[in-house]
């Protein structure tokens, strides 16, 4: 059994670590509400500009990089959002694992991914392994600013808009952690560019089904009834009709001005939700570490008491044995 001095030293060091973990947990708890509020407040604006861009792309017939590049280019940009500090559990390792999976999948498809990393932990990981990184950013992972989002989005926007002969890319992915709640944070892969256009199919068939499902009267309806029926059908078709857009001065110039704002808005949203996820992960990790340190202190204290009791028992045994030996000699 270890000495009492060793147990006391381990108890003191573990207790010191427990205080540090508890302090980190309290700091994360004080920041999570603000980080979550900022992330949730930014989401409606990002969703609105995404819906607007997707609607424009779906209902316009133009050639624009926002819908995809015409030239064949195997280069693909991948941005991984990691943390600047540790003590956040498996937050950074989960992002790196998902990033490696994405890179391997893109390479299997014959593409050439170019990696961009945000966060000191991710930069250190790839630098230690001598992996080539196209661009890095550090700082503000817990509270990203608009300026940081602008710098990242501008670099990636320029990379996407550049032609293949000048090192441009044809696609742009972001790997980040989505904040679901205080307990659940999911790693997501978002393809930001080109915009994925989802056109609702089956609207004409649905209208045809509604028209065919209407009951047919045996008697000939009056002219007023026919007018009302035709107006109701036309209203239904107008609801399902695609919107019409008028662009001034032109659709290409409008999209050229929208695209940088779209990229910056989506990047900023991903940075904010990643910051909220990092803070929540750190709080959960520090809470678990505090509980484990407390349990370890209790276990070491029991072992220390057992060691002290064994030492006392041994001393008593030696005293009793010595007394018996002296008594035997006297007799």
From TrEMBL:
Annotated Low complexity bias: 222-233
Region (Disordered): 217-241
Keywords for this protein: ATP synthesis, Cell membrane, CF(1), Hydrogen ion transport, Hydrolase, Ion transport, Membrane, Transport
Any one cellular-component term (Gene Ontology): proton-transporting ATP synthase complex
A Pfam family recorded for this sequence: ATP-synt
Keyword Cell membrane appears in the UniProt entry: yes
Subunit structure: F-type ATPases have 2 components, CF(1) - the catalytic core - and CF(0) - the membrane proton channel. CF(1) has five subunits: alpha(3), beta(3), gamma(1), delta(1), epsilon(1). CF(0) has three main subunits: a, b and c.
PANTHER family membership: ATP SYNTHASE GAMMA CHAIN, ATP SYNTHASE SUBUNIT GAMMA, MITOCHONDRIAL
Family per similarity comment: Belongs to the ATPase gamma chain family.
Function, in words: Produces ATP from ADP in the presence of a proton gradient across the membrane. The gamma chain is believed to be important in regulating ATPase activity and the flow of protons through the CF(0) complex.
UniProt protein name: ATP synthase gamma chain
Source organism of the structure: Parascardovia denticolens DSM 10105 = JCM 12538
